[in-house]
TrEMBL record:
Belongs to the TRAFAC class TrmE-Era-EngA-EngB-Septin-like GTPase superfamily. AIG1/Toc34/Toc159-like paraseptin GTPase family. IAN subfamily. Keywords: GTP-binding, Membrane, Nucleotide-binding, Transmembrane, Transmembrane helix. The lineage of its organism: Eukaryota, Metazoa, Chordata, Craniata, Vertebrata. It comes from Cyprinodon variegatus. This is Si:dkey-120c6.5. The chain crosses the membrane at residues 282-303, 309-331. One of its GO terms (molecular function) is GTP binding. Residues 22-218 form the AIG1-type G domain. The keyword Iron does not apply.
Amino acid sequence: SKAWRSSPKKYRRDTHFLTGSAKELRLMVVGSSGPSQFQLTNSILGREAFSKDVTCISASVKNKGELSGRPVTVVNGPNIYDKDITHPKRKMELRRSKCLCIPGPHAFLVAFDIEKISPNDMKTPWLLKKRFGSNCLKHCMVLFAYEGNLDGASLEHRVKKTEWYLRELIEKYGGRFHVFKKNWRDRSQDKELLRKIELMVASLGGGHFSSTTFQRAEESVRREEKRLGKQRAEEIERTWNEMEQQYMSEELCFHKDAYITNVRAEIQAKAELDNGWLRTSLARGLGTGLVVGAVIGALFGSIEGAGGMVLYGIIGGAVGGSAGGTAQVAIKHMENRHFVHKIINSFEYSL
């Protein structure tokens, strides 16, 4: 496949992406029907983000973790052929999934069960182009789920040489594919999956996929972050002053850092789940509002990070009990309260 035959010169130019362990990969996982996309997410994260009984979801979900040591954000939405979701709801969740993956995914991972390929599955490239834009297929890879008692190498041969319909399916995605075990506890394929994803991204210049709708999603999220930050200005100032009275020097800096990091994580999560672009979609077809708090709880409940539980114990729950220590954005050098206002007024991230 052309996607894997990148020239040595281009490969070297993108080496910083392939070896940059600090850079987070944003992965949009797409499912046609059934549990395959949720099995894939579990396999990527190495934990049961979705229970084994989950075959569909009604709302888009974002999880964070690591794939073979590389930080990843994984976004799942409702299955393409989920018959229980209305058209307005489907449109809403498509928008929400884009907000959860701003400024855009590095890769779309399209999951199928290798033993249950249907005529609908063969139509997924057309539907993905309709949802994300014609160029999205360049950023796609097919992932085939299989039972652990089968041999992965023989399955790859089967896809390439034996089953014409499997070959036809992956050719629509540029020939890029990977087979993975449904048992997420088996970590033997992590490095190979990461290698294939990184190679695909590097062959496209090392950047992420973008489109006018992803740009609109990012703009709407940033506006909402700024609005929410202004709403919390007094709370931030009050907590800041309390910490200045309670702590000294390096200890004070640590707690200020942890507090603002968590506040920003909460604000970012809320803005991704509920913003002007989503409310427009809601007003057009879905009626009543969003249960943002519950979704944020689900989002952050499965993610662990530094300092969260300790922080809440120290400052008496001044942060609203949802983000924990899960923020990925570190804010340094907070030496005076003017920085608080700078945070509130800018909300500019390095993504």
